[in-house]
Known about the structure:
The structure holds two protein chains of two kinds. Chain A is of the alpha/beta class. Chain A has one domain (14-310): Rossmann fold (3-Layer(aba) Sandwich), CATH 3.40.50. Chain A is built from eleven helices and seven strands. Chain B is of the alpha/beta class. Chain B folds into two domains: 3-187, Thiamin diphosphate (ThDP)-binding fold, Pyr/PP domains (Rossmann fold, 3-Layer(aba) Sandwich), CATH 3.40.50; 199-330, Rossmann fold (3-Layer(aba) Sandwich), CATH 3.40.50.920. In chain B, the strands form three sheets. A seven-stranded mixed β-sheet of chain B has the order 3-2-4-5-7-6-12, sandwiched between helices. In chain B, strands 9-11-10-13-14 form a five-stranded mixed β-sheet, sandwiched between helices. The longest helix of chain B is centred in the last third of the chain and has 16 residues, at 315-330. Chain B is globular, with a radius of gyration of 20 Å.
Amino acid sequence: MERLSQIAEVVVDRDTMIEMYHRMLLARAFEETVFDVYRRGWMPGLAHLADGQEAVPVGVCMALRPDDTITSTHRGHGHIIGKGGQVEPMMAEVMGKATGYCRGKGGEMHIADVKLGILGANGIVGGGIGIAAGSAFTAKREGKGRVSVAFFGDGAINQGIWYETANMAVLWKLPLIYVCENNQYTEYTNYRKLQAGEGLVARAEAMGMPGLEVDGNDVLAVYSATLEMVERARRGEGPSMLVCHTFRYGGHHVGDPGTKYRTKEEIEEWKAKDPIVRFEKVLVERGVLSPGDIEEMHSKVEKRLAAAVEAGRNAPYPDVSEVTEHVYA
Amino acid sequence: MSTRELTFAQAIREALDEELARDPNLFILGEDVGAWGGVFRCTEGLYEKYGPDRVIDTPLSEEGFVGLAVGAAMTGMHPVPEIMFGDFITLAMDQIVNQAAKMRYMTGGQVKVPITFRATMGAGRSSGAQHSQSWHAWFAHVPGLKVVVPSTPYDAKGLLKTALREPNPVVFFEDKVMYAKIKGPVPEEEYTIPFGKADIKREGSDITLVALSRMVHPTLAAAEMLAKEGISAEVIDPRTLTPLDEETLIQSVCKTGGAVIVDEGYNRFGVTAELAAVIAYGAFDYLDAPVERLGAMDVPIPFSPPLEFTTIPDEQKIVERVHKVLEGRRR
């Protein structure tokens, strides 16, 4: 079902490449740190991690303007970081602390930073798709060339909301980019068992919009394809769909090792295509970063995450009096 | 103030018209709301007046257009989605309950979600079990939503204008039987009615009748019948379920000592149950008999008229319940 589209790689300047790499490192380190925080019992509930998928959110979001919006999923930490979210209030939110992005009311599945155009991660599979369509509707009316991105997974493509909004988005030429992050598993089941037809580009085309299919572990391919779709949307030509094939290293959530329904070979095969390792090679080959620079960036990110954990642990829980705040405006 | 008589539908239409003119961020969307003017004529002429970008004909995609409305609201618009038959609101439940109602809370107050969902309710038209239901209680159960259930053209216009200025999601229920049949005075001058203020539709001293939406009308007719028997009934319309004016209900029952609650929603776990609890708790020492609950029978709404009318409250049933309460008091 995977037929990668031919996309010319765009020229990316040095600073943009370094920032891409930085955000990918942050996204990876955030997930690894949250897993550690979970194991130590420093956070309530569960977490849905996306380590292995970093090229998709970063490649997409780096192609966006600050005023463009995104909606995210239950596996959304990478999208938040990709759009410029800060790991400190994210970590505090994961821990349910008052210093979190949502003052501890959202939790790891519902992080939002509306000022950055992040209209929220969403606990309902496909839940962000309607909101993204609405943001695209507003954007079209504003007429400032703003676009809206809906991130969702291979599970959400089988939800009715995709078809209903796709129909309206094409009819009304909304500046909406559907980004399907296919990490191969819809919770605990391989997507091939759940998906009829000739793949998702065919579904997009059936709805009347173009689709592109890319190696979701190649950040430059994701970025290049997104730019093409974003420019199309800004020109007023309507929605499109980007399908990114990638893989989550962990299970559905932190309590699931993800090894019962996936073979060791499959996991190793994908780890050999790690998006960060691959991008490091490109950066070194092109002389953007030296191995020393890379090491230094790694260590800075690790230190930042360690400090975020420390700050989160020391932060207060929200006062119980806040429980009735924000129900109504 | 000069007034004229408007139908319920005309009052709704006038509120929409005035608010579309006042607020450029307001837009209506729904099935056949545009060029056709709405199947219940509530948007008649608005498409011509405000154009296809503000009165938008959508595909038959309740989840899709309601979901789109949530995102538009979060980014600064005030959408007014119309759910033609309230029964179809089931198709949009995730968007209303999981998205619209909680977005502000889950984000710690980062967003406002100003949406006015207009939906119909009400049986009595032989429309069958999927076009006759009254689901207002469901939404009164969800924190984050406000729920409005007007009974007269005057209330409908004033409350809808308030809803259209609310920074929160509001589910506004219109009983479709009232659209053409119920007429009433509506001032020419602009006015709004605040949420959370019950209206005493008829003053009385022997028993409190609480009714909402269309049920106010058979309840007023019942009060008239009771007056002929020498029974003075007070009729109270809460007008909004969220927020709920508990005080007015309790005060009335403290005065009368008994209550019958009339609603077209189902009895079981419904509005009648909640209002009975409010009264039982707030006026416990003043009650001479248990609070009577007269909701729709707990069956799917049948098609055949004799069956259908058996399931919903009417004047006669209300009078019977009042007699039951008053007999209980004598015991």
